[in-house]
Amino acid sequence: MDKAGNWIKWAARMGYAARGLVYFIIGLFAVLAAIGAAEKKGSKDALRTLFDQPFGTAIVWCLVAGLAGYVSWRLIQGLLDTDRHGRTPKGLAIRAGLLVSAFTYATLAVYALSLLGVFAAGSGGGSGGQRVAPFLSGIVAQRYVSLALGLVILGVAGAHVWKAVRQKYEDHFDAGEDAMEIIHPVSMAGLIARGFVLAVIALLFFYRFASAEQSGGRPGLEDALTFVQGLPGGAFLLAAIGLGLIAFSAYSFIEARWRRINVGHAVPFSLH
């Protein structure tokens, strides 16, 4: 179990770092878009930006490894309850959110692999990556799936804000008092900003359910940021959200460094 536990810890830390890099680019471009210097970017655009840089292929391969580690860790958290959320309705809801997170980052990893040409080639033309993405979008475009995802994402958004306000993130960190003085403001700003963005994404899912809209794929970060920018004072709000997402990026790197990775406690995902 020691070797397996060490592997899980390294995979989780690589995953948090990969998430941090993706959110840093998203937050940076949101700030630049707010001042008119760039276009908004979602998570896939962030990967494309990295891929287009010098040594981009190597960077994206590293991100794929990190995202794979993050997906594995989220599955372990959700299915085996390493953080001891339990089997209460609240605990099961949190664990369901972890599984949704695993699915989300798995689709992002699939997209990254398609950039690298892993799904290229094959009979009939077109890449496997190009076939996978529409299939996944088709699933989440179903009306009642949109409602279910909206409810789960709204719950995750509320959990982010609750974790920030109550400083519950501190329960999972092995950091000294000096480090926590920096971790507290960064974590609170990052979690609240991401919680707000997730709430907007949930709202877009609810709109899709209410309007029976079946096209356009699943709402994502870029859709949420576009919605925010269209609000009164949207440019200022978008800049604030961008800075908050950069803070969430820093929070992710903090998790990569100080997050307690519990691998010794496991309870299968069950309703009983």
Task: Briefly say what this structure is.
By secondary structure, the chain is an all-alpha fold.
Number of structural units classed as domains: 1
Which consecutive residue ranges, at least 5 long each, have pLDDT under 50?
121-129
SS-based class: mainly alpha
Number of helices: 9
Alpha carbon gyration radius: 19 Å
**Which term fits the overall shape?**
globular
Strand content: under 5%
Question: What is the averaged pLDDT score?
Answer: 82
* Proportion of residues in helical segments: over 70%
**Which series of helices and strands comes N to C?**
HHHHHHHHH
Q: Tell me about the biggest sheet?
A: none
Termini separation: 26 Å
Number of strands: 0
